[in-house]
């Protein structure tokens, strides 16, 4: 079950080997090269390189930026349509931004978090396959279809949601996107703040400009000013060359500052000047230059409270909250919780090339009851883990590994009410209706943890008699 072949270009053997292990554990095939030259030879050996649909072709190239001989950016020219993910240290984050402009699909800072690397890899491959699919047959009908998919009744622009809170959010996004207003997105961790920022950018006039995302909490405090605003040569120890900042790199597009509450006060003052004057001054420079950037900021913290404690500039806070969007936490999204779980389950199965798994009724109950403190991100991880650990294609609460104590009490009595007025019988009914065409009565009873006799009795009581008459 290969997820695709990946070429790693990295001169440091230890990093290369650990990346190989990480990717192979996820089912990717891996080929290694220690330099651009070596990678070039490997690429030339690919027999069907000219054919975009060739199965032998690498699905992705992951290249370090600094390599002996030629730099990693050379890989972009050599890749011939294969997406290139650049790895770089924080110190060279700016060069990474310019490599994005040269055509890299994404960049990731070293040392990288394993989960993040896997996510970037999956996204890069998916993005490329979407692009391939688009360019191979782009008809008007297809374009309409895509529009339907991205804005289907399940959500908007890839953000799944059907509850009132999410509908309100979608309406707000559609209203604010075409304007140039600064937006402040409030939401707990994992609620989809970056997705919302992306939706705003993609529905704005700046769609063809860059969108630069910066997580203020992930960049060391000492580097953040020079990363954001750039610096002149010699402006501080170690500034051996002048460098463009991320704000300048977002010129003509959107700058997304995630976790803005973590921005140090000095950097806040500089940012405020950029917003007020539309000009940027690099660290160590006396000259300003104009920039045209739309700012979207996000935070999980209470900025009003932070500003009352003098930890966040009040004037910047008021500037940011021109439009404030609140993303509800997952636990407040009612039936969306199960809808998301099912969609994420289907997505995970597809990604892992598995047939579709389903959720056992007690798993549905546990999912609806659980508080999801890590929101959608936690659910994504829980479902992925469950699919890996599940012994058959039905996910049990134990596979999910969320706090399912609630299950024991809820399942003691059939009549007991679950959250949102749903009863165990609702789950029973739903499970039977969804699975009865694919499962025998024996299998259904087993999955429900009841005898066939009880299954039959409940069917009678709930008015869902068995459809098939064949013996099971
Ligand atoms: N409504 C949604 N529909 C589909 N996927 C979602 C939704 N909300 C979040 N996700 C997914 O959950 C993960 C976390 O989302 P995202 O990074 O946007 O959250 P965040 O609020 O920015 O998190 P953090 O504050 O921790 O950075 C992503 O993989 C994203 O695709």
TrEMBL record:
<keyword id="KW-0067">ATP-binding</keyword>
<dbReference type="InterPro" id="IPR011006">
    <property type="entry name" value="CheY-like_superfamily"/>
</dbReference>
<keyword id="KW-0547">Nucleotide-binding</keyword>
<dbReference type="GO" id="GO:0000160">
    <property type="term" value="P:phosphorelay signal transduction system"/>
</dbReference>
<dbReference type="Pfam" id="PF25601">
    <property type="entry name" value="AAA_lid_14"/>
</dbReference>
<dbReference type="InterPro" id="IPR025943">
    <property type="entry name" value="Sigma_54_int_dom_ATP-bd_2"/>
</dbReference>
<feature type="modified residue" description="4-aspartylphosphate">
    <location>
        <position position="64"/>
    </location>
</feature>
<feature type="domain" description="Sigma-54 factor interaction">
    <location>
        <begin position="159"/>
        <end position="388"/>
    </location>
</feature>
<dbReference type="GO" id="GO:0005524">
    <property type="term" value="F:ATP binding"/>
</dbReference>
<dbReference type="GO" id="GO:0006355">
    <property type="term" value="P:regulation of DNA-templated transcription"/>
</dbReference>
<dbReference type="InterPro" id="IPR025662">
    <property type="entry name" value="Sigma_54_int_dom_ATP-bd_1"/>
</dbReference>
<dbReference type="InterPro" id="IPR003593">
    <property type="entry name" value="AAA+_ATPase"/>
</dbReference>
<dbReference type="InterPro" id="IPR027417">
    <property type="entry name" value="P-loop_NTPase"/>
</dbReference>
<protein>
    <submittedName>
        <fullName>Fis family transcriptional regulator</fullName>
    </submittedName>
</protein>
<feature type="domain" description="Response regulatory">
    <location>
        <begin position="5"/>
        <end position="125"/>
    </location>
</feature>
<dbReference type="InterPro" id="IPR009057">
    <property type="entry name" value="Homeodomain-like_sf"/>
</dbReference>
<keyword id="KW-0597">Phosphoprotein</keyword>
<dbReference type="InterPro" id="IPR058031">
    <property type="entry name" value="AAA_lid_NorR"/>
</dbReference>
<dbReference type="InterPro" id="IPR002078">
    <property type="entry name" value="Sigma_54_int"/>
</dbReference>
<dbReference type="InterPro" id="IPR001789">
    <property type="entry name" value="Sig_transdc_resp-reg_receiver"/>
</dbReference>
<dbReference type="Pfam" id="PF00072">
    <property type="entry name" value="Response_reg"/>
</dbReference>
<dbReference type="GO" id="GO:0003677">
    <property type="term" value="F:DNA binding"/>
</dbReference>
<dbReference type="Pfam" id="PF00158">
    <property type="entry name" value="Sigma54_activat"/>
</dbReference>
<keyword id="KW-0238">DNA-binding</keyword>
